[in-house]
Amino acid sequence: MENDFQTEIISNILKILSIKGINQAELSRRTELDKAVVSKLFGGHSRLTVNALSKIATALDMSVIDIITYPDKYVIVNSGEVEPLEAVLQIRLKKDKKDQVMKLIFGEHCLEILNK
User: Fold this and answer.
1) Per-residue pLDDT reduced to its tens digit, 63-108
2) Helical segments of the chain, H only
3) Can you list the pairs that 49-58 forms with residues at least 24 positions away whose Cβ atoms lie under 8 Å?
4) Could you tell me if 11 and 42 are in contact, meaning their C-beta atoms sit under 8 angstroms apart?
5) Cα(100)–Cα(24) distance, integer angstroms
6) Structural domains present in the chain
């Protein structure tokens, strides 16, 4: 299972390199990984380490997660922003009190607008 995952990541890297027109020698230069190390990685004779994957991602100007999920792009659904919360409050009021509250909330002309 782990080997399949590594094979898939290496396959993704090879596809990305091809699309970007980068050969293994250039990748080696950009990552400062020895050419033999890069060759062994792509030949399946060496394990891909997190450190090497991080260097490759940086060299390809991508995030590690985008290499892993390639060709899909990882999208953060919730960026930490809190969406406004909608709340409904129901209060039973007599007509005159209701009018006062509506004026307080929406202004003097709210009743004219609401009654049209």
Assistant:
1) 998 999 888 877 666 556 666 666 565 667 777 777 776 666 666 6
2) 2-20, 24-31, 35-43, 50-59, 64-68, 95-106, 110-115
3) 53/9, 55/31, 56/13, 56/27, 56/31, 58/31
4) no
5) 75
6) 2-68 (1.10.260.40), 86-116 (no CATH)
